[in-house]
Amino acid sequence: MSYQKILLNIFFLLPAWVLRIFVWKKDVYIRGQVLDFKSSMLIALTPSSLLAKVEFVDDLRIAINDARIAMPVSAKPAVEVKTLDHELLSEDSSILLKEYIPKVLTTEKVVLYFHGGGYVIGDVMTHDRWVSNMANILEAKVYSLNYRLAPENKFPKAIDDVCLTLEWLNNLGYENSNISLCGDSAGAHLAAATSNHLAMSNKSMPSSQCLIYPMTDPSCSSESHSLFGDGYFLTNDTMVWFWEQLRGSDNDNEDIRFNLSKFPVNLKNPKTLIITAGFDPLSDEGEEYAALLNNAGVSIEHIHYPNMFHGFVTMTKLKAAKYAAEDFLSDYKKIL
Length: 336
Fold this sequence. Notes:
The protein has helices at 3-13, 16-22, 37-45, 57-70, 128-138, 157-172, 186-200, 223-228, 236-246, 283-295, 319-335, and strands at 29-30, 33-34, 82-89, 94-101, 110-114, 141-145, 179-184, 208-212, 271-279, 300-309. By secondary structure, the chain is α/β, with parallel strands linked by helices. The chain has one domain (3-335): Alpha/Beta hydrolase fold, catalytic domain (Rossmann fold, 3-Layer(aba) Sandwich), CATH 3.40.50.
């Protein structure tokens, strides 16, 4: 084990009050919110080079994945979760769908999960520990989809992958009404975009959706983008770049499956839980999307964690992140 990994493990084990004795760091207050102290330290210690865009997407994906493997920040599941890999065949590719089966199952409903990463980076393995913990807490099967990434696969290719997966689950005996959609960041966008796609196509809706700090608005112009767009893991420049990689043409900006801020007042959607974090450039657009759904008559619950940051669900070695994740999953379990 490298000394960096040892030091990181010690960092996660030490309570915040001990760290405050040895490290002087001013608390971060913005908009009446204070960032969790250990989270602020982790952000300060994280190499910014891993968060910046690069010319070669493959290099970025390898760097991010290697860093997460070398220095895992997501807590291991307390109880082992069985996994099965399924290969779904589309017209021109095969897609991995990873099934998570917890030891305790209390519902026949299943969750279809979409990882974050701006549609450009990440895969089922970068979110493996998080999804395992989710399956344990929800006491439900979770299927995690390795949807095709941009810029090689522009909008709406990822939605096509989800529709293929829903058809596969339907053939297993799971109707859409027994499937809940969930994702974080870009994955949350994909969940919401799929619900909008199904509604526009007059197809049966999923039972519910859980949108964890969703990206919704390609303009990236909200106040939270200005306040938290630099220095809190996800940057405003990176978000603009992610949208550019996903966008096939300017016409996509008017498509409610791409630009969720265009959500109309007459569209159906399933019961929805939206999670936002205080120190996240996407915070305001997540809140605004919750308001749009509410105005359209959708059953909506919005939970905001003012001391958290973008990406916290995959950094649950931080106690505050772990508590926040477990807290909203208890609410999600109720609406499955």
